[in-house]
Structure formats: C-alpha cells, structure tokens
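tmp note - NADP-dependent oxidoreductase domain-containing protein
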Amino acid sequence: MDDDASDGEHELLSPSLPIVFTRSLSGHTPLLKLSTLKAIARRRNKTTAQVILRWGLQRGTSVLPRSLHPDRIKTNFDILCWSLSEEDWNEVNSLDSQLRPVGSRNNLFSLNGPLQAVEEIDDLDLNCD
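out:
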C-alpha cells in the first residue's frame, strides 16, 4: 500500500475469518458456539453472528459478511442499527484469542461471487427505527 498515492485511491486489506467455521486446529471453541457471545445475543435479541459482526464493525475493522440467503443478508445489515453496550463490549474483548487454520479450502476466493455494493441492493429495506 502506498499512502502517498497520487491518484487519490487507497487499498484496504481485510483478512478473512469465517465465523461459521466449525473446526479449529487450535482446539478453540467455534465463535458461534461461545457461551459469552450466545448470552450477549440472547440479551440483545440478536443472533450470535450479529454480535460478532457488530463487534468487528464497532472496533473499526472492515467487516465483510457473506451469505447467499436473503434473510441472512438482511439480518447482517441490521448490525448498522445498534451498538454493543460497554458491558457487552468488555465481555467480548475479554474472550481468549481465536486462531484460524491457514491453507484450508475455506481460503478460496472467487472473483465471480454474488457480492454487491450496498447502494446496488435495490430491495434493501433497512429500518433502524
């Protein structure tokens, strides 16, 4: 990356971490099954995945949720409508670090995927009220 790019464009690097990954070479519990995250989700009437995505967004990292299911895509956008409380934030931050195996089939990348820019999703009805 060149912070002094003359054309005004900058690159953003975002590592991949599938939250639905169920196997861990490190022996850690999968993210979606962590009792702390599940408890926060229950208290907030959200899914565990939403809690994980919101935490990533709230900490200022790029969050790139992926789904082929319209209902899950809409649920993923809901993370823009709420924030973790300070208590929830501290609980998530107190969790042990998670490790992800490298070199699995989950690292494959396709340039022909179904992802769209938010403004291109014409049927998105984001109601944050």
